[in-house]
């Protein structure tokens, strides 16, 4: 199992302790089917979120959480349809110096689509560990 996590955040600092933002979290995962064929899947969320810092300055622990749309798809498959739904995340981070933090985030997506009258769904759960550079 190989994976790459990407997280783009665009937002506003209401105070030194509270940030609100839109973000796009994506987890690109390579898996191997029993047949030996490799496939790449993307678990993506575009939720609105917030982060709350325990202290005004670094170093500081912080909590983050968000909710919004989710989708799951295989980007390199020609006949793959997107599964859309709802996603949530929650995490803990540590800003070790100003602008740089380590984050541990639990992400869950609940997607579905209809194919020939049959409802298909994909529920995903991921644990992301990321290094973040915050520009402001």
Features:
136 residues, single chain, elongated, seven-stranded antiparallel β-sheet
Task: Describe this protein's structure.
The mean pLDDT is about 85. The chain has about 140 residues and is mostly beta strands. It is built from no helices and seven strands. It has strands spanning about 1-15, 20-30, 40-55, 60-75, 85-95, 100-115, 120-135. The chain has a seven-stranded antiparallel beta sheet with strand order 1-2-3-4-5-6-7, with no helix packed on it.
Total strands: the figure is 7
- From the alpha carbons, calculate the radius of gyration and give it in angstroms: 17 Å
- The termini sit apart by 35 Å
Choose one word for the global shape. elongated
| Whole-number mean pLDDT | 84
> What percentage of residues falls in helices of 4 or more residues?
under 10%
SSE pattern: EEEEEEE
Poorly predicted regions are none
> Would you tell me the structural class of the helices and strands?
mainly beta
Strand content: over 45%
Report the total helices.
Answer: 0
Characterize the largest beta sheet: strand count, sense, and whether it forms a barrel. Answer: 7 strands, antiparallel
Strand order of the largest sheet: 1-2-3-4-5-6-7
What's the arrangement of secondary structure elements?
Blueprint lengths: L1 E12 L4 E15 L5 E16 L6 E14 L9 E15 L2 E16 L2 E16 L3
Antiparallel strand pairs: 1-2, 2-3, 3-4, 4-5, 5-6, 6-7
Question: Care to give the gist of this entry?
Answer:
Helix content is 0%, strand content 76%.
């Amino acid at each position: 199992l190989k994976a790459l996590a990407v997280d783009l955040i665009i937002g506003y600092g209401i105070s030194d302790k509270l940030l609100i933002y839109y973000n796009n979290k994506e987890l690109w995962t390579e898996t191997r089917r029993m047949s030996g064929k490799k496939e790449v899947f993307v678990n993506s969320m575009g939720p609105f979120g917030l982060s709350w810092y325990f202290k005004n300055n670094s170093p500081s622990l912080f909590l983050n959480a968000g909710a919004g749309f989710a989708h799951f798809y295989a980007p390199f498959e020609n006949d793959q349809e997107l599964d859309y739904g709802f996603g949530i995340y929650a995490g803990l981070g540590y800003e070790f110096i100003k602008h740089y933090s380590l984050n541990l985030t639990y992400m869950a997506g609940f997607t579905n689509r209809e194919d020939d009258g049959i409802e298909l769904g994909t529920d995903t759960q991921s644990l992301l560990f990321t290094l973040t550079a915050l520009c402001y």
